[in-house]
Amino acid sequence: MKLTATQIKNAKPGEKPYKLSDGAGMYLLVAPTGGKSWRLKYRIGGKEKLLSLGAYPEVSLRDARERRGDARKAIAAGIDPSAKRQAEKRARTAADTFEAVAREWIDARSGQWSQSNKHQVTRRLERDAFPWIGQTKVHELEPPEVLQMLRRIEARGAIETAHRVKQLVGQVMRFAVATGRTQRDPTPDLQGALKTRRVTRYASIVNPGEIGPLLRDIDGYSGQHATRCALQLAPMVFVRPGELRKAEWGEFDLEGSVWRIPASRMKMNALHIVPLATQAILILRDLKPLTGAGRYVFPGARSCDRPMSENTINAALRRLGYDKDQMTGHGFRSMASTLLNEQGWNRDAIERQLAHAERDNVRAAYNYAEHSAERRRMMQAWADYLESLKARA
């Protein structure tokens, strides 16, 4: 005999639990406390088993019968519904570990990162976070556990890395909050708990009176011609050293006076446009007969199939007598940024030419077209300014 909604509603608790059967193995269990829950008794593989179908009234009579029907279909197909539920629960639990959520976050951000940046983030988490908190459920991750993991990094003297890993953990946890896996990010509670990191600034010459001698020294460099050209071009384009040394001839339009660096080679994974001043064009035209038949503008000393070594620019500066506390390849960016701002150029145009990530939503709204003309004027004026400094006695 099947149950009715009225019977279920009017069922009163007794001194002991009792069952109200609805047939096909399903019944309502009424507890002495008044609680009512659905159960399904079934046999599979010669063994009798019991499956919970939910509590009444959250699960109505109709809902319980639908769940019974689904379970019976699974049993008929040789699938144990109880074992299936446990496997699904384990899968959901595994997907909520810090490592699982972190890898999901990395995949979600991949379209915004370069391959090198993605590799760096993944490697940092794999080395410094996953071994210690990777298998912890994100909703169970507490500040002391995160701090203990960060202390291990500090212990080897990697203070900057500890701060970077803390930032990554915070980003992963905020992603976990956004996707409903936890309620909060524990990293703000660690404010002030780590050792103060030293701010790394690349050595740079920004005094105009010292820039002229530097440029004259570069012109007098007696090493490889391609290296001298790279040194001469670096102040005029102020791209990152890796973007300069990996430059390919196919990226340059010398007639149009522009260098288009593809997104795959940029830190922020976005196409970067570098307007070329006439002085920069002359340097490139001078170099092209030497390296123009190959892929790279500045090929390696040992192989034309590979770009210039990452140490070449800094080594050349050392050879010219500038130590690491005076000038670096990265320092040409600081030189341009400092002086262009002092000269009153539009900050948005400078930041975009430096290919910095926009942190201000209003500034981020500017696109390349809105600054292209000003950037072209700025780059030519900057090259003219450098030339005037070099010409001074």
From TrEMBL:
<dbReference type="InterPro" id="IPR002104">
    <property type="entry name" value="Integrase_catalytic"/>
</dbReference>
<keyword id="KW-0233">DNA recombination</keyword>
<dbReference type="Pfam" id="PF00589">
    <property type="entry name" value="Phage_integrase"/>
</dbReference>
<dbReference type="InterPro" id="IPR013762">
    <property type="entry name" value="Integrase-like_cat_sf"/>
</dbReference>
<dbReference type="Pfam" id="PF22022">
    <property type="entry name" value="Phage_int_M"/>
</dbReference>
<protein>
    <submittedName>
        <fullName>Tyrosine-type recombinase/integrase</fullName>
    </submittedName>
</protein>
<keyword id="KW-0238">DNA-binding</keyword>
<comment type="similarity">
    <text>Belongs to the 'phage' integrase family.</text>
</comment>
<dbReference type="InterPro" id="IPR025166">
    <property type="entry name" value="Integrase_DNA_bind_dom"/>
</dbReference>
<feature type="domain" description="Core-binding (CB)">
    <location>
        <begin position="96"/>
        <end position="177"/>
    </location>
</feature>
<dbReference type="InterPro" id="IPR050808">
    <property type="entry name" value="Phage_Integrase"/>
</dbReference>
<dbReference type="InterPro" id="IPR010998">
    <property type="entry name" value="Integrase_recombinase_N"/>
</dbReference>
<dbReference type="InterPro" id="IPR044068">
    <property type="entry name" value="CB"/>
</dbReference>
<dbReference type="InterPro" id="IPR038488">
    <property type="entry name" value="Integrase_DNA-bd_sf"/>
</dbReference>
<keyword id="KW-0229">DNA integration</keyword>
<feature type="domain" description="Tyr recombinase">
    <location>
        <begin position="201"/>
        <end position="383"/>
    </location>
</feature>
<dbReference type="InterPro" id="IPR053876">
    <property type="entry name" value="Phage_int_M"/>
</dbReference>
<dbReference type="InterPro" id="IPR011010">
    <property type="entry name" value="DNA_brk_join_enz"/>
</dbReference>
<dbReference type="Pfam" id="PF13356">
    <property type="entry name" value="Arm-DNA-bind_3"/>
</dbReference>
